[in-house]
Protein backbone atom coordinates (compact mmCIF):
# COMPACT_ATOMS: atom_id res chain seq x y z
CA UNK A 1 0.00 0.00 0.00
CA UNK A 2 2.86 2.36 0.74
CA UNK A 3 4.18 2.05 -2.82
CA UNK A 4 0.70 2.79 -4.21
CA UNK A 5 0.51 5.89 -2.06
CA UNK A 6 3.92 6.98 -3.34
CA UNK A 7 2.78 6.60 -6.94
CA UNK A 8 -0.37 8.61 -6.26
CA UNK A 9 1.72 11.34 -4.62
CA UNK A 10 4.10 11.49 -7.60
CA UNK A 11 1.24 11.65 -10.09
CA UNK A 12 -0.51 14.37 -8.08
CA UNK A 13 2.68 16.45 -7.88
CA UNK A 14 3.33 16.04 -11.61
CA UNK A 15 -0.22 17.24 -12.38
CA UNK A 16 0.16 20.28 -10.11
CA UNK A 17 3.60 21.00 -11.59
CA UNK A 18 2.27 20.80 -15.15
CA UNK A 19 -0.59 23.15 -14.26
CA UNK A 20 1.86 25.57 -12.68
CA UNK A 21 4.11 25.40 -15.74
CA UNK A 22 1.25 26.34 -18.04
CA UNK A 23 0.26 29.21 -15.79
CA UNK A 24 3.82 30.55 -15.68
CA UNK A 25 4.43 29.99 -19.39
CA UNK A 26 7.17 27.38 -18.94
CA UNK A 27 7.51 23.91 -20.40
CA UNK A 28 6.38 21.25 -17.91
CA UNK A 29 9.61 19.12 -17.93
CA UNK A 30 11.62 22.11 -16.71
CA UNK A 31 9.28 22.87 -13.81
CA UNK A 32 8.99 19.20 -12.78
CA UNK A 33 12.74 18.71 -12.90
CA UNK A 34 13.31 21.63 -10.54
CA UNK A 35 10.40 20.52 -8.34
CA UNK A 36 11.84 17.02 -8.03
CA UNK A 37 15.25 18.37 -7.08
CA UNK A 38 13.70 20.58 -4.42
CA UNK A 39 11.51 17.80 -3.01
CA UNK A 40 14.52 15.49 -2.69
CA UNK A 41 15.72 17.74 0.16
CA UNK A 42 12.39 17.57 2.03
CA UNK A 43 12.82 15.28 5.08
CA UNK A 44 10.74 12.14 4.84
CA UNK A 45 9.79 12.57 1.20
CA UNK A 46 9.74 9.13 -0.48
CA UNK A 47 12.78 8.24 -2.56
CA UNK A 48 12.17 7.48 -6.22
CA UNK A 49 14.11 5.18 -8.52
CA UNK A 50 13.34 4.09 -12.06
CA UNK A 51 14.55 0.70 -13.18
CA UNK A 52 16.06 0.91 -16.68
CA UNK A 53 13.90 -2.00 -17.87
CA UNK A 54 10.79 -0.10 -16.78
CA UNK A 55 11.84 2.95 -18.76
CA UNK A 56 12.93 1.06 -21.88
CA UNK A 57 9.99 -1.36 -21.94
CA UNK A 58 7.21 0.39 -20.03
CA UNK A 59 7.64 4.14 -20.50
CA UNK A 60 9.61 4.85 -23.66
CA UNK A 61 7.52 2.68 -26.07
CA UNK A 62 4.18 4.45 -25.52
CA UNK A 63 5.84 7.89 -25.67
CA UNK A 64 7.58 7.08 -28.95
CA UNK A 65 4.50 5.35 -30.33
CA UNK A 66 2.25 8.35 -29.72
CA UNK A 67 4.84 10.73 -31.17
CA UNK A 68 5.05 8.52 -34.28
CA UNK A 69 1.25 8.34 -34.57
CA UNK A 70 1.11 12.12 -34.68
CA UNK A 71 3.99 12.54 -37.13
CA UNK A 72 3.17 13.33 -40.75
CA UNK A 73 4.63 10.53 -42.86
CA UNK A 74 4.84 12.65 -46.06
CA UNK A 75 6.65 15.41 -44.14
CA UNK A 76 8.89 12.82 -42.47
CA UNK A 77 9.77 11.34 -45.86
CA UNK A 78 10.59 14.76 -47.32
CA UNK A 79 13.01 15.51 -44.47
CA UNK A 80 14.52 12.02 -44.24
CA UNK A 81 18.05 13.16 -45.18
CA UNK A 82 18.51 15.75 -42.38
CA UNK A 83 16.71 13.42 -39.98
CA UNK A 84 19.10 10.54 -40.64
CA UNK A 85 22.12 12.84 -40.56
CA UNK A 86 21.11 13.86 -37.03
CA UNK A 87 19.62 10.60 -35.77
CA UNK A 88 22.46 8.35 -36.95
CA UNK A 89 25.46 10.41 -38.02
CA UNK A 90 25.41 12.99 -35.23
CA UNK A 91 24.75 10.38 -32.52
CA UNK A 92 27.72 8.28 -33.61
CA UNK A 93 30.04 11.27 -33.95
CA UNK A 94 28.96 12.66 -30.57
CA UNK A 95 29.40 9.30 -28.87
CA UNK A 96 32.96 8.80 -30.15
CA UNK A 97 33.88 12.45 -29.52
CA UNK A 98 32.69 12.25 -25.90
CA UNK A 99 34.35 8.86 -25.49
CA UNK A 100 37.68 10.17 -26.75
CA UNK A 101 37.64 13.23 -24.49
CA UNK A 102 36.63 11.25 -21.40
CA UNK A 103 39.30 8.64 -22.12
CA UNK A 104 41.92 11.41 -22.31
CA UNK A 105 40.79 12.70 -18.91
CA UNK A 106 40.45 9.20 -17.41
CA UNK A 107 43.11 7.02 -19.07
CA UNK A 108 42.49 4.18 -16.63
CA UNK A 109 38.88 3.77 -17.82
CA UNK A 110 38.52 1.50 -20.89
CA UNK A 111 37.79 3.30 -24.12
CA UNK A 112 34.68 1.17 -24.69
CA UNK A 113 33.23 2.38 -21.38
CA UNK A 114 33.92 5.98 -22.38
CA UNK A 115 32.15 5.42 -25.72
CA UNK A 116 29.20 3.95 -23.79
CA UNK A 117 28.98 7.19 -21.82
CA UNK A 118 29.12 9.12 -25.08
CA UNK A 119 26.24 7.08 -26.50
CA UNK A 120 24.24 7.68 -23.32
CA UNK A 121 24.41 11.47 -23.57
CA UNK A 122 24.26 11.68 -27.40
CA UNK A 123 20.50 11.50 -28.22
CA UNK A 124 18.23 14.51 -27.60
CA UNK A 125 14.92 13.75 -25.91
CA UNK A 126 11.77 12.93 -27.85
CA UNK A 127 9.57 14.75 -25.34
CA UNK A 128 11.16 18.03 -24.39
CA UNK A 129 12.62 19.10 -27.75
CA UNK A 130 9.40 18.82 -29.75
CA UNK A 131 7.27 20.17 -26.89
CA UNK A 132 9.40 23.30 -26.72
CA UNK A 133 9.63 23.57 -30.51
CA UNK A 134 5.84 23.51 -30.90
CA UNK A 135 5.31 25.93 -28.05
CA UNK A 136 7.86 28.37 -29.44
CA UNK A 137 6.16 28.20 -32.85
CA UNK A 138 9.13 27.16 -34.96
CA UNK A 139 8.69 26.59 -38.71
CA UNK A 140 7.05 23.30 -39.56
CA UNK A 141 10.15 21.98 -41.34
CA UNK A 142 12.23 22.55 -38.21
CA UNK A 143 9.65 20.81 -36.02
CA UNK A 144 9.53 17.85 -38.42
CA UNK A 145 13.31 17.49 -38.35
CA UNK A 146 13.40 17.63 -34.54
CA UNK A 147 10.55 15.14 -34.28
CA UNK A 148 12.15 12.73 -36.73
CA UNK A 149 15.53 13.02 -35.03
CA UNK A 150 14.09 12.32 -31.60
CA UNK A 151 12.14 9.33 -32.91
CA UNK A 152 15.15 7.56 -34.46
CA UNK A 153 18.22 8.69 -32.52
CA UNK A 154 17.27 6.58 -29.51
CA UNK A 155 17.75 3.44 -31.58
CA UNK A 156 21.26 4.46 -32.62
CA UNK A 157 22.23 5.38 -29.07
CA UNK A 158 20.82 2.30 -27.35
CA UNK A 159 22.39 -0.10 -29.87
CA UNK A 160 25.71 1.66 -29.44
CA UNK A 161 25.48 1.47 -25.63
CA UNK A 162 24.91 -2.28 -25.77
CA UNK A 163 27.73 -2.85 -28.24
CA UNK A 164 30.15 -0.72 -26.21
CA UNK A 165 29.27 -2.54 -22.97
CA UNK A 166 29.67 -5.84 -24.79
CA UNK A 167 33.09 -4.72 -26.05
CA UNK A 168 34.27 -4.46 -22.44
CA UNK A 169 34.32 -8.24 -22.42
CA UNK A 170 37.08 -8.24 -25.00
CA UNK A 171 35.63 -7.03 -28.29
CA UNK A 172 36.82 -3.95 -30.16
CA UNK A 173 34.88 -0.77 -30.65
CA UNK A 174 35.25 0.69 -34.12
CA UNK A 175 33.22 3.31 -35.99
CA UNK A 176 32.38 1.29 -39.10
CA UNK A 177 31.63 -2.01 -37.31
CA UNK A 178 29.26 -0.05 -35.09
CA UNK A 179 27.58 1.48 -38.15
CA UNK A 180 27.07 -2.00 -39.58
CA UNK A 181 25.54 -3.32 -36.35
CA UNK A 182 23.24 -0.31 -36.08
CA UNK A 183 22.07 -0.80 -39.67
CA UNK A 184 21.46 -4.53 -39.12
CA UNK A 185 19.49 -4.12 -35.90
CA UNK A 186 17.55 -1.19 -37.33
CA UNK A 187 16.68 -3.18 -40.45
CA UNK A 188 15.28 -6.07 -38.43
CA UNK A 189 13.43 -3.55 -36.27
CA UNK A 190 11.79 -2.08 -39.37
CA UNK A 191 10.53 -5.53 -40.41
CA UNK A 192 9.17 -6.27 -36.93
CA UNK A 193 7.48 -2.86 -36.74
CA UNK A 194 5.84 -3.32 -40.13
CA UNK A 195 4.63 -6.81 -39.23
CA UNK A 196 3.17 -5.61 -35.93
CA UNK A 197 1.52 -2.64 -37.62
CA UNK A 198 -0.06 -4.78 -40.34
CA UNK A 199 -1.51 -7.16 -37.73
CA UNK A 200 -2.80 -4.25 -35.64
CA UNK A 201 -4.34 -2.67 -38.73
CA UNK A 202 -6.21 -5.88 -39.56
CA UNK A 203 -7.57 -6.00 -36.01
CA UNK A 204 -8.67 -2.36 -36.13
CA UNK A 205 -10.53 -2.98 -39.40
CA UNK A 206 -12.53 -5.83 -37.85
CA UNK A 207 -13.27 -4.10 -34.52
CA UNK A 208 -16.42 -1.99 -34.17
CA UNK A 209 -16.26 -1.34 -30.41
CA UNK A 210 -14.25 1.82 -29.55
CA UNK A 211 -13.15 0.28 -26.25
CA UNK A 212 -11.60 -2.68 -28.04
CA UNK A 213 -9.90 -0.28 -30.47
CA UNK A 214 -8.37 1.51 -27.48
CA UNK A 215 -7.20 -1.79 -26.02
CA UNK A 216 -5.50 -2.86 -29.27
CA UNK A 217 -3.86 0.55 -29.60
CA UNK A 218 -2.54 0.41 -26.03
CA UNK A 219 -1.14 -3.10 -26.48
CA UNK A 220 0.50 -2.51 -29.87
CA UNK A 221 3.67 -0.65 -28.78
CA UNK A 222 4.36 -3.05 -25.90
CA UNK A 223 3.90 -6.18 -28.02
CA UNK A 224 6.11 -4.79 -30.79
CA UNK A 225 8.83 -3.81 -28.32
CA UNK A 226 8.82 -7.17 -26.53
CA UNK A 227 9.07 -9.10 -29.81
CA UNK A 228 11.92 -6.85 -31.01
CA UNK A 229 13.78 -7.23 -27.71
CA UNK A 230 13.35 -11.00 -27.81
CA UNK A 231 14.84 -11.13 -31.33
CA UNK A 232 17.72 -8.82 -30.42
CA UNK A 233 16.78 -6.03 -32.84
CA UNK A 234 16.12 -2.34 -32.27
CA UNK A 235 12.88 -2.08 -30.31
CA UNK A 236 12.88 1.70 -30.75
CA UNK A 237 12.91 1.47 -34.55
CA UNK A 238 10.21 -1.22 -34.41
CA UNK A 239 7.80 0.85 -32.32
CA UNK A 240 8.45 4.02 -34.34
CA UNK A 241 7.81 2.24 -37.65
CA UNK A 242 4.61 0.72 -36.26
CA UNK A 243 3.44 4.14 -35.09
CA UNK A 244 4.23 5.83 -38.41
CA UNK A 245 2.46 3.10 -40.39
CA UNK A 246 -0.69 3.13 -38.25
CA UNK A 247 -0.79 6.89 -37.80
CA UNK A 248 -0.75 7.40 -41.58
CA UNK A 249 -3.70 4.99 -41.98
CA UNK A 250 -5.79 5.82 -38.90
CA UNK A 251 -8.43 7.77 -40.88
CA UNK A 252 -9.22 4.57 -42.81
CA UNK A 253 -8.91 2.08 -39.95
CA UNK A 254 -10.96 3.57 -37.12
CA UNK A 255 -14.42 5.03 -36.73
CA UNK A 256 -14.85 8.66 -35.70
CA UNK A 257 -15.82 7.62 -32.17
CA UNK A 258 -12.75 5.39 -31.85
CA UNK A 259 -10.41 8.14 -33.07
CA UNK A 260 -11.79 10.71 -30.64
CA UNK A 261 -11.71 8.32 -27.70
CA UNK A 262 -8.24 6.96 -28.53
CA UNK A 263 -6.83 10.45 -28.84
CA UNK A 264 -8.13 11.34 -25.38
CA UNK A 265 -6.73 8.14 -23.85
CA UNK A 266 -3.25 8.59 -25.34
CA UNK A 267 -3.13 12.27 -24.40
CA UNK A 268 -3.81 11.38 -20.78
CA UNK A 269 -1.25 8.57 -20.72
CA UNK A 270 1.54 10.63 -22.25
CA UNK A 271 0.74 13.59 -20.00
CA UNK A 272 1.09 11.45 -16.86
CA UNK A 273 4.13 9.49 -18.05
CA UNK A 274 6.08 12.56 -19.10
CA UNK A 275 5.32 14.36 -15.86
CA UNK A 276 6.25 11.51 -13.55
CA UNK A 277 9.47 10.70 -15.44
CA UNK A 278 10.89 14.21 -15.25
CA UNK A 279 9.80 14.54 -11.64
CA UNK A 280 11.70 11.36 -10.78
CA UNK A 281 14.76 12.59 -12.66
CA UNK A 282 14.82 15.59 -10.34
CA UNK A 283 14.26 13.43 -7.27
CA UNK A 284 17.23 11.20 -8.14
CA UNK A 285 19.75 13.99 -8.63
CA UNK A 286 20.55 14.39 -4.93
CA UNK A 287 21.16 10.70 -4.23
CA UNK A 288 23.32 10.34 -7.35
CA UNK A 289 25.42 13.32 -6.38
CA UNK A 290 25.90 11.97 -2.87
CA UNK A 291 26.96 8.55 -4.21
CA UNK A 292 29.95 9.83 -6.18
CA UNK A 293 33.30 8.58 -4.84
CA UNK A 294 35.41 10.25 -7.53
CA UNK A 295 37.30 13.37 -6.54
CA UNK A 296 35.53 16.71 -6.86
CA UNK A 297 38.09 18.10 -9.30
CA UNK A 298 37.87 15.09 -11.59
CA UNK A 299 34.08 15.08 -11.41
CA UNK A 300 33.82 18.74 -12.34
CA UNK A 301 36.38 18.41 -15.16
CA UNK A 302 34.72 15.37 -16.75
CA UNK A 303 31.22 16.81 -16.38
CA UNK A 304 32.18 20.15 -17.91
CA UNK A 305 34.07 18.45 -20.74
CA UNK A 306 31.16 16.16 -21.64
CA UNK A 307 28.62 19.00 -21.60
CA UNK A 308 30.95 21.12 -23.73
CA UNK A 309 31.52 18.36 -26.28
CA UNK A 310 27.81 17.54 -26.50
CA UNK A 311 26.88 21.15 -27.21
CA UNK A 312 29.83 22.07 -29.46
CA UNK A 313 29.75 18.91 -31.61
CA UNK A 314 26.08 19.50 -32.40
CA UNK A 315 26.90 22.98 -33.69
CA UNK A 316 29.94 21.75 -35.63
CA UNK A 317 27.78 19.06 -37.24
CA UNK A 318 24.75 21.20 -38.10
CA UNK A 319 26.37 23.75 -40.43
CA UNK A 320 28.22 21.30 -42.74
CA UNK A 321 25.22 18.95 -42.71
CA UNK A 322 23.00 21.84 -43.78
CA UNK A 323 25.16 23.57 -46.37
CA UNK A 324 27.74 21.11 -47.74
CA UNK A 325 25.07 18.76 -49.09
CA UNK A 326 23.73 21.68 -51.13
CA UNK A 327 26.90 21.61 -53.18
CA UNK A 328 25.28 18.64 -54.91
CA UNK A 329 23.42 20.15 -57.91
CA UNK A 330 20.33 17.95 -57.61
CA UNK A 331 19.81 18.86 -53.94
CA UNK A 332 20.58 22.54 -54.55
CA UNK A 333 17.96 22.73 -57.29
CA UNK A 334 15.31 20.97 -55.22
CA UNK A 335 15.80 22.71 -51.85
CA UNK A 336 16.23 26.33 -50.91
CA UNK A 337 19.27 27.34 -48.91
CA UNK A 338 18.00 28.07 -45.39
CA UNK A 339 19.29 31.13 -43.51
CA UNK A 340 22.00 30.42 -40.95
CA UNK A 341 19.49 31.09 -38.16
CA UNK A 342 17.67 27.81 -38.90
CA UNK A 343 20.57 25.37 -38.26
CA UNK A 344 21.56 27.53 -35.28
CA UNK A 345 18.16 27.03 -33.64
CA UNK A 346 18.17 23.30 -34.44
CA UNK A 347 21.65 23.00 -32.96
CA UNK A 348 20.51 24.67 -29.74
CA UNK A 349 17.45 22.40 -29.48
CA UNK A 350 19.44 19.47 -28.09
CA UNK A 351 17.75 18.82 -24.75
CA UNK A 352 18.39 15.40 -23.21
CA UNK A 353 15.90 13.39 -21.17
CA UNK A 354 14.26 9.97 -20.77
CA UNK A 355 16.57 7.86 -22.95
CA UNK A 356 19.71 9.28 -21.35
CA UNK A 357 18.20 8.48 -17.94
CA UNK A 358 17.37 4.87 -18.82
CA UNK A 359 20.61 4.17 -20.69
CA UNK A 360 22.72 5.53 -17.83
CA UNK A 361 21.01 3.33 -15.26
CA UNK A 362 21.37 0.27 -17.50
CA UNK A 363 25.17 0.33 -17.21
CA UNK A 364 26.49 -2.80 -15.48
CA UNK A 365 27.68 -2.43 -11.90
CA UNK A 366 31.18 -3.69 -12.73
CA UNK A 367 31.87 -0.89 -15.21
CA UNK A 368 34.56 1.48 -14.03
CA UNK A 369 33.42 4.79 -12.49
CA UNK A 370 29.71 4.00 -12.83
CA UNK A 371 28.83 6.54 -10.14
CA UNK A 372 30.66 9.25 -12.05
CA UNK A 373 29.03 8.26 -15.35
CA UNK A 374 25.57 8.40 -13.75
CA UNK A 375 26.25 11.86 -12.37
CA UNK A 376 27.57 13.11 -15.72
CA UNK A 377 24.53 11.77 -17.57
CA UNK A 378 22.12 13.41 -15.14
CA UNK A 379 24.13 16.65 -15.25
CA UNK A 380 23.78 16.72 -19.05
CA UNK A 381 20.01 16.26 -18.69
CA UNK A 382 19.71 19.08 -16.17
CA UNK A 383 22.03 21.45 -18.02
CA UNK A 384 20.43 21.04 -21.42
CA UNK A 385 16.87 21.21 -20.09
CA UNK A 386 17.42 24.22 -17.87
CA UNK A 387 19.77 26.22 -20.10
CA UNK A 388 18.79 25.30 -23.64
CA UNK A 389 15.15 24.67 -22.78
CA UNK A 390 14.67 28.09 -21.19
CA UNK A 391 16.68 30.06 -23.77
CA UNK A 392 15.43 28.39 -26.96
CA UNK A 393 12.31 30.61 -27.17
CA UNK A 394 14.46 33.72 -26.72
CA UNK A 395 16.95 32.54 -29.36
CA UNK A 396 14.19 31.75 -31.87
CA UNK A 397 12.70 35.21 -31.43
CA UNK A 398 16.09 36.90 -31.53
CA UNK A 399 17.02 35.15 -34.78
CA UNK A 400 13.49 35.63 -36.17
CA UNK A 401 12.95 31.91 -36.67
CA UNK A 402 9.20 31.77 -36.26
CA UNK A 403 6.27 29.83 -37.58
CA UNK A 404 5.37 31.28 -40.94
CA UNK A 405 2.67 28.89 -42.07
CA UNK A 406 -0.49 30.29 -40.41
CA UNK A 407 -1.81 32.23 -43.41
CA UNK A 408 -0.63 29.55 -45.86
CA UNK A 409 -2.39 26.88 -43.80
CA UNK A 410 -5.60 28.90 -43.70
CA UNK A 411 -5.52 29.44 -47.46
CA UNK A 412 -4.84 25.76 -48.16
CA UNK A 413 -7.58 24.71 -45.74
CA UNK A 414 -10.11 27.05 -47.32
CA UNK A 415 -9.28 25.78 -50.79
CA UNK A 416 -9.53 22.11 -49.84
CA UNK A 417 -12.66 22.77 -47.75
CA UNK A 418 -14.27 24.26 -50.86
CA UNK A 419 -13.43 21.12 -52.84
CA UNK A 420 -14.66 18.91 -49.99
CA UNK A 421 -17.89 20.90 -49.84
CA UNK A 422 -18.50 20.40 -53.54
CA UNK A 423 -17.91 16.65 -53.15
CA UNK A 424 -20.31 16.57 -50.20
CA UNK A 425 -23.02 18.42 -52.12
CA UNK A 426 -22.63 16.04 -55.07
CA UNK A 427 -23.04 13.09 -52.70
CA UNK A 428 -26.09 14.78 -51.19
CA UNK A 429 -27.69 15.26 -54.61
CA UNK A 430 -27.12 11.60 -55.44
CA UNK A 431 -28.56 10.23 -52.20
CA UNK A 432 -31.24 12.81 -51.34
CA UNK A 433 -34.12 11.15 -53.23
CA UNK A 434 -37.07 10.77 -50.88
CA UNK A 435 -35.52 12.76 -48.03
CA UNK A 436 -37.56 15.66 -46.56
CA UNK A 437 -36.69 18.95 -48.24
CA UNK A 438 -36.01 20.68 -44.91
CA UNK A 439 -33.38 18.04 -44.06
CA UNK A 440 -31.64 18.54 -47.41
CA UNK A 441 -31.60 22.31 -46.92
CA UNK A 442 -30.16 21.97 -43.41
CA UNK A 443 -27.34 19.82 -44.80
CA UNK A 444 -26.65 22.34 -47.57
CA UNK A 445 -26.50 25.12 -45.01
CA UNK A 446 -24.07 23.08 -42.91
CA UNK A 447 -21.67 22.70 -45.84
CA UNK A 448 -21.91 26.40 -46.60
CA UNK A 449 -21.19 27.27 -42.98
CA UNK A 450 -18.05 25.13 -42.92
CA UNK A 451 -16.75 26.64 -46.15
CA UNK A 452 -17.40 30.17 -44.89
CA UNK A 453 -15.71 29.36 -41.59
CA UNK A 454 -12.55 28.27 -43.41
CA UNK A 455 -12.42 31.47 -45.49
CA UNK A 456 -13.05 33.62 -42.40
CA UNK A 457 -9.69 32.54 -40.98
CA UNK A 458 -8.01 34.58 -43.70
CA UNK A 459 -9.78 37.78 -42.68
CA UNK A 460 -9.31 40.36 -39.94
CA UNK A 461 -8.50 38.56 -36.71
CA UNK A 462 -9.32 41.65 -34.59
CA UNK A 463 -13.04 41.45 -35.29
CA UNK A 464 -15.36 38.66 -34.21
CA UNK A 465 -16.27 36.55 -37.22
CA UNK A 466 -19.81 35.21 -37.77
CA UNK A 467 -18.61 31.69 -36.95
CA UNK A 468 -17.00 32.85 -33.71
CA UNK A 469 -20.18 34.70 -32.76
CA UNK A 470 -22.22 31.58 -33.52
CA UNK A 471 -19.94 29.47 -31.32
CA UNK A 472 -20.05 31.93 -28.43
CA UNK A 473 -23.85 32.24 -28.48
CA UNK A 474 -24.44 28.53 -29.02
CA UNK A 475 -22.31 27.70 -25.96
CA UNK A 476 -24.49 29.98 -23.86
CA UNK A 477 -27.57 28.17 -25.19
CA UNK A 478 -26.05 24.77 -24.42
CA UNK A 479 -25.33 25.87 -20.85
CA UNK A 480 -29.00 26.82 -20.45
CA UNK A 481 -30.19 23.50 -21.94
CA UNK A 482 -27.86 21.53 -19.70
CA UNK A 483 -29.19 23.36 -16.63
CA UNK A 484 -32.80 22.48 -17.49
CA UNK A 485 -31.97 18.78 -17.89
CA UNK A 486 -30.16 18.73 -14.52
CA UNK A 487 -33.14 20.32 -12.76
CA UNK A 488 -35.49 17.80 -14.38
CA UNK A 489 -33.29 14.95 -13.16
CA UNK A 490 -33.12 16.38 -9.63
CA UNK A 491 -36.92 16.75 -9.50
CA UNK A 492 -37.44 13.16 -10.67
CA UNK A 493 -39.11 14.08 -13.96
CA UNK A 494 -36.49 12.18 -16.02
CA UNK A 495 -34.29 9.20 -15.08
CA UNK A 496 -30.49 9.39 -14.91
CA UNK A 497 -30.18 7.57 -18.24
CA UNK A 498 -32.03 10.34 -20.07
CA UNK A 499 -29.79 12.99 -18.53
CA UNK A 500 -26.68 11.01 -19.50
CA UNK A 501 -27.82 10.68 -23.10
CA UNK A 502 -28.73 14.37 -23.42
CA UNK A 503 -25.53 15.39 -21.67
CA UNK A 504 -23.44 13.38 -24.13
CA UNK A 505 -25.14 14.98 -27.13
CA UNK A 506 -24.62 18.47 -25.73
CA UNK A 507 -21.00 17.69 -24.84
CA UNK A 508 -20.26 16.49 -28.36
CA UNK A 509 -21.77 19.61 -29.88
CA UNK A 510 -19.88 21.87 -27.47
CA UNK A 511 -16.59 20.14 -28.28
CA UNK A 512 -17.21 20.78 -31.98
CA UNK A 513 -17.72 24.48 -31.25
CA UNK A 514 -14.15 24.67 -29.97
CA UNK A 515 -13.10 24.82 -33.63
CA UNK A 516 -14.53 28.34 -33.88
CA UNK A 517 -12.10 29.55 -31.22
CA UNK A 518 -8.96 28.27 -32.97
Automatic annotation (TrEMBL):
<feature type="transmembrane region" description="Helical">
    <location>
        <begin position="182"/>
        <end position="199"/>
    </location>
</feature>
<keyword id="KW-0915">Sodium</keyword>
<feature type="transmembrane region" description="Helical">
    <location>
        <begin position="297"/>
        <end position="319"/>
    </location>
</feature>
<keyword id="KW-0813">Transport</keyword>
<feature type="transmembrane region" description="Helical">
    <location>
        <begin position="264"/>
        <end position="285"/>
    </location>
</feature>
<comment type="function">
    <text>Na(+)/H(+) antiporter that extrudes sodium in exchange for external protons.</text>
</comment>
<feature type="transmembrane region" description="Helical">
    <location>
        <begin position="340"/>
        <end position="360"/>
    </location>
</feature>
<feature type="transmembrane region" description="Helical">
    <location>
        <begin position="83"/>
        <end position="104"/>
    </location>
</feature>
<feature type="transmembrane region" description="Helical">
    <location>
        <begin position="155"/>
        <end position="176"/>
    </location>
</feature>
<dbReference type="Pfam" id="PF00999">
    <property type="entry name" value="Na_H_Exchanger"/>
</dbReference>
<keyword id="KW-0050">Antiport</keyword>
<keyword id="KW-0472">Membrane</keyword>
<dbReference type="InterPro" id="IPR004705">
    <property type="entry name" value="Cation/H_exchanger_CPA1_bac"/>
</dbReference>
<keyword id="KW-0812">Transmembrane</keyword>
<keyword id="KW-1133">Transmembrane helix</keyword>
<keyword id="KW-0406">Ion transport</keyword>
<feature type="transmembrane region" description="Helical">
    <location>
        <begin position="372"/>
        <end position="397"/>
    </location>
</feature>
<keyword id="KW-0739">Sodium transport</keyword>
<protein>
    <submittedName>
        <fullName>Na+/H+ antiporter</fullName>
    </submittedName>
</protein>
<dbReference type="InterPro" id="IPR018422">
    <property type="entry name" value="Cation/H_exchanger_CPA1"/>
</dbReference>
<feature type="transmembrane region" description="Helical">
    <location>
        <begin position="54"/>
        <end position="76"/>
    </location>
</feature>
<dbReference type="InterPro" id="IPR006153">
    <property type="entry name" value="Cation/H_exchanger_TM"/>
</dbReference>
<feature type="domain" description="Cation/H+ exchanger transmembrane">
    <location>
        <begin position="12"/>
        <end position="397"/>
    </location>
</feature>
<feature type="transmembrane region" description="Helical">
    <location>
        <begin position="24"/>
        <end position="42"/>
    </location>
</feature>
<keyword id="KW-1003">Cell membrane</keyword>
<comment type="similarity">
    <text>Belongs to the monovalent cation:proton antiporter 1 (CPA1) transporter (TC 2.A.36) family.</text>
</comment>
Amino acid sequence: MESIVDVVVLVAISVVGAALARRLGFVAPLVLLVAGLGLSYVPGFPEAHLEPELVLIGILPPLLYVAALQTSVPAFRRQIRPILLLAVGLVLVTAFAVGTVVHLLLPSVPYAACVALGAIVAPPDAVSATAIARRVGLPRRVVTILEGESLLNDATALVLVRLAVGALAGGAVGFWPIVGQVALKAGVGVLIGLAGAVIAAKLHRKIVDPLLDDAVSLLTPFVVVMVAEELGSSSVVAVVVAGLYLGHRIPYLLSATSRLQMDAVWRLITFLLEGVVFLIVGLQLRSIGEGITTGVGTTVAVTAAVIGVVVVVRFLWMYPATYLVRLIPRIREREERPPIAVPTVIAWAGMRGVVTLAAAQSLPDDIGNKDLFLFVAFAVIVFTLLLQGTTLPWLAVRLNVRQDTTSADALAEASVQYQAGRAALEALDEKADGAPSEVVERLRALIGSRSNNAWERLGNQQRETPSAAYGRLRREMITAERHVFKIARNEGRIPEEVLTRAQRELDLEESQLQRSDD
